[in-house]
Amino acid sequence: MICQTTGWGGQPVRAHGGSYEGDLASRLVPVKSANRIRVTFNASVSDELPWKFVPQQREVRVLPGETALAFYTAENRGSKDIIGVATYSVTPAQCAPYFSKIQCFCFEEQRLNAGETVDMPVFFYLDPDLLNDLNMKGVETVTLSYTFFKARYDNNGSFKAPGMI
Fold it and tell me: Average pLDDT, whole number, for the chain?
């Protein structure tokens, strides 16, 4: 999935986070001796997309290595079917390499029929390697932000991700 390797403005977000190159399952062991990190959720929609888009929860608190599942809700308030695409960012920026999404909806076409409402999951974890990064010292809150845009296509009808046009 593209969101596992790139982020908003090219900000890198690796599938495994940190520097570890091994098996994903070995990264998914909660570090019980660590403090929980507050993950907050943000959502916005470009002006040209007649959608309502909101996180279903304001925040979750997770241990490094612990998986979490969050949901966003999108509603097409327009009178026509429309395709949107989401981009994301992680702040503060030094957290991006450690915020690993296992499943998400970013950079993929999302077609909503007129009046349709859908729930969109984000399954993620914070890589335990963040505990060894001095730049992460004192970081207690991470924010995951998504913005939905109207999908665009080139002259050949191929989908173009936001920022790639």
Answer: 84
Q: CA–CA separation, 63 vs 38, rounded Å?
A: 9
Q: Does a structural domain hold residue 69?
A: yes
Residue 72 belongs to some domain of the structure: yes
The total of other beta-carbon atoms located within 10 Å of residue 100's CB is 21
pTM over 0.85: no
Q: Is residue 149 part of a domain?
A: yes
Q: What is the DSSP string of 34-91?
A: SPPEEEEEEEEE-TTS-EEEEES-SEEEE-TT-EEEEEEEEEE-SSS-EEEEEEEEEE
Domain containing residue 117: 2-19+29-153
Q: Model confidence over 84-137: pLDDT tens digits? A: 999 999 999 999 999 999 888 887 889 999 999 999 999 999 999 999 999 999
Q: Is 93 helix (H, G, I), strand (E, B) or coil?
A: helix
> Could you say which DSSP state residue 156 is in?
T
